[in-house]
Amino acid sequence: MAHVADKDPVSGVDTTGHEWDGIKELDNPLPRWWLWVFYACVVWSIGYWIVMPSWPLVSSYTKGVIGFSQRENLIEEIAAAKADQAQWLDRIKTASVEEIRADPQLLEFAMAGGRSAFAVNCSQCHGQGAAGSKGYPNLNDDAWLWGGTPEQILFTITHGIRNADDPDARWSEMPKFGKDGLLDAKQIGDVVEHVLALSGQDHDAARAEAGKAVFVEQCVACHGDDGKGNIELGAPNLTDSIWLYGGDRAAVTESVVNARFGIMPAWGLKLDEATLKQLAVYVHALGGGQ
């Protein structure tokens, strides 16, 4: 049986007939200001539907009286921005990296473009701050396997390292001295101690001396008599404290036994010439360029 509305004895206001846990709902009218705002919103919405694009259709939408389109506005803004950038990009395409660096305005534009391209294409491996990680070089220091001049950096970015896609890719391959049986366990242990000695780390002096002969026979062709490497071959300097894969005894042993074979894409196959040059300028300016 439906509840019969009555008056609230305290306020004298009719109730709606709804009651919860002994609490009755009063039938107070809505505030007049609220009703006027509501009616105004209804009128506004009708006007908006007429004037502005609003209702979705099967494959389109109602265009409205003024035909406004935020998407078309955005397309026009992007086109205008590209047109404004085109003059700078054309200059970058025809200029050398050194000429870009010598022109303050062109350099500013290239740095901005290079920073953006680095974030999209390079930061996944080298890190957002370009500090790298194990197996991925730190681009902020001054250790460059293939040289750190602007032109050398541009070549490396363009052609990559040890990839099968570009015949001009930087290429070097360290022998797997242990895996391929080129050295026995003792010889590997000795030469590792010699490398630790070259880099000023704690080592077994007797074994390091024995490893020197192995180093001369097997390693100096790439790393040099003094162990300072050769950028023409991509052979790292073994006398500093910069190690791409780690420089402790275990990491050096792993490198000698199984070698390392890091690969970098040939970005020249993916990016345009202007973007490559902007990247080269940006990377060189990080602080470690030569």
From TrEMBL:
Cofactor annotation: heme c
Positions contributing to heme c 2 binding: M174, C219, C222, H223
Pathway(s) per entry: Energy metabolism; oxidative phosphorylation
Keywords, ordered alphabetically: Cell inner membrane, Cell membrane, Electron transport, Heme, Hydrogen ion transport, Ion transport, Iron, Membrane, Metal-binding, Oxidoreductase, Repeat, Respiratory chain, Transmembrane, Transmembrane helix, Transport
GO biological process, one term: proton transmembrane transport
Superkingdom per UniProt: Bacteria
Annotated TM spans: 33-51
Domain Cytochrome c as annotated: residue spans: 109-199, 206-287
Binding site for heme c 1: C122, C125, H126, M264
InterPro entries found in the cross-reference section: CcoP_N, CcoP_N_sf, Cyt_c-like_dom, Cyt_c-like_dom_sf, Cyt_C_IC, Cyt_c_oxidase_cbb3_su3, Cytochrome_c_Oxidase_Subunit
Location of this chain's protein in the cell: Cell inner membrane
Oligomer status and interactors: Component of the cbb3-type cytochrome c oxidase.
Protein family according to the UniProt entry: Belongs to the CcoP / FixP family.
Function (record text): C-type cytochrome. Part of the cbb3-type cytochrome c oxidase complex.
Record's protein name: Cbb3-type cytochrome c oxidase subunit
